[in-house]
Amino acid sequence: MRSSISYILRPVALLLALVTTSCVNDDQTVCPPFGQAEQYVLNLRITTQKAATRTTRAEGDDIEEATDAEDRINIEGNDFAVLVFDGYGRLIQRFEPSSAIISRQESGYEVTGVLGETSADRIQVAVIANCKSMAAAAVYDRFILGHTFLSDMYRDGTTWNFTLPNDGWQPDGAGKAIPMYGCSGVALLSAATQNAIDKERYDLDLGEIKMLRAVAKIEVADALPDGVELASDITLSNYNAVGRLIPDATANPDWNKEDTQVGAPTLPDAPATADGLKFFAETKTVGDETRTVYSAYVTEADLTANRAVINLTVRDSGANPTSKDYNMEVDEYADGKPTKRLGALLRNHIYRYEIRSASNTLNINYTICPMGTSVADIPDFE
C-alpha cells in the first residue's frame, strides 16, 4: 500500500542521420577522441502523467489526485537539460532548450534539435530538471563535454548539490518546481539503422525516462478531535540542509524501477545539519476525512548519524486556551507509539504522521511510501 506521485518522460525518439558505428570496447582508455564521425538529430517527447494517490481500505478504493506542481518540469523557464552520453557513459552533447525548437503539444512538449558529431554507436539520455528552483542554476554549467561521465555524476558529492530553503518552500506550478533526475537505458544506434524504412532518417525509441525527485516529503496530518488542533508553526530540527540532485545509481542499482526506487540515501560529501525548517499547510483528503496536513520537503539524510525532530504544538480552542509543545523524532510508529528507528530519509518517498490525540504523549499513526512513477497505495489511518 503506497502513495504515488507520477512524473514520466514518455517515449523518447532519436531521429538519426548518417551514423557510423565504432567505440564498442568497454575499456575507456581506447575510446576514440570526442567529436569524430557523423551528426544526428534528437527529437525528444516530454509528457506528464496525471499524478494520483490511492488510499485503499476494506470497503474500496479512493483516488486522491496529487498537485500538478509536484509533477511539473519548468520547461518555460528553461529549467532543465537533456544530456546525451555515449556507450562509455561519457557526455557527448548538452541538449538544452537554448539549442532546440520547443513546441507545446496537447499532451506535453516536443523538443527537436541537431546534436553534435559523434562516433558513438551506443547512447544514454539523462534529464536533470528544476535546479533553478533550488538556486542551483550553476549545476547546468558543470557538465563538461567529453569529460563528464555518468559515473562521476553518481559518485561526486560536491559538484551537483543544492541547499534546501527553510522558509516553507513548496512548488507553485510556475517558477518553483521540485528538482528531478532521470536516465534512459543504453540504446544501440545500429538498431535504428537496421530497422529503418526511411534511409534518410533513423528512429530509435528509448522508452520511458522515469524522473525521480531529489527530495522526500514529510506530512503531519491533524486528526485531533473537535476543540483541539495543531498549531501551524510546525518546524523540523536537525535536518540535512544540503542535498544531492542526482541519485547514486551505484549504491541504488534499481533506483529507476517504480517498485524499488532507492534504498540508501545519496548524501553530499559534507552534510550540513540545520534547525527551523518550516512546514506549510495543505488541505487533503485522508480516507473519508478532509484534514489539514502540514508538509515539508526535505533532502535525504542518514538518520543514524543525525536524528531529525518534528517540533509541534497542540492547542485547544476553549475560553482559556491552553497548549502543549511536543518534540517528535522522525521514526516509525505503530499503535500510536514509536517502534523502530528509521535509518534514513529517502528521496521520492512520503513520510506521513497522523496526530490523533495528545496528552502526555502523542498518539500517532504512521506510514512511509514511495512517490512512484505509477499509481500505488497508501493505507488509511484508522
Brief description of this entry?
With 382 residues, the protein is mostly beta strands.
Helix content percent band: under 10%
Tell the overall outline: elongated
Give the oligomeric state.
single chain
Q: Report the radius of gyration as a whole number of Å.
A: 23 Å
Tally of contiguous helical segments: 3
Number of strands: 34
**Measured distance between first and last alpha carbons:** 14 Å
Largest sheet composition: 6 strands, antiparallel
Mean pLDDT: 74
The residue ranges in which pLDDT falls below 50 over 5 or more consecutive positions are: 1-39, 48-65, 372-382
Strand content: 35-45%
The structure class reads: mainly beta
Summarize this structure as a short list of keywords or feature phrases.
disordered C terminus; 3 helices; mainly beta; 382 residues; five-stranded antiparallel β-sheet; 34 strands; disordered N terminus
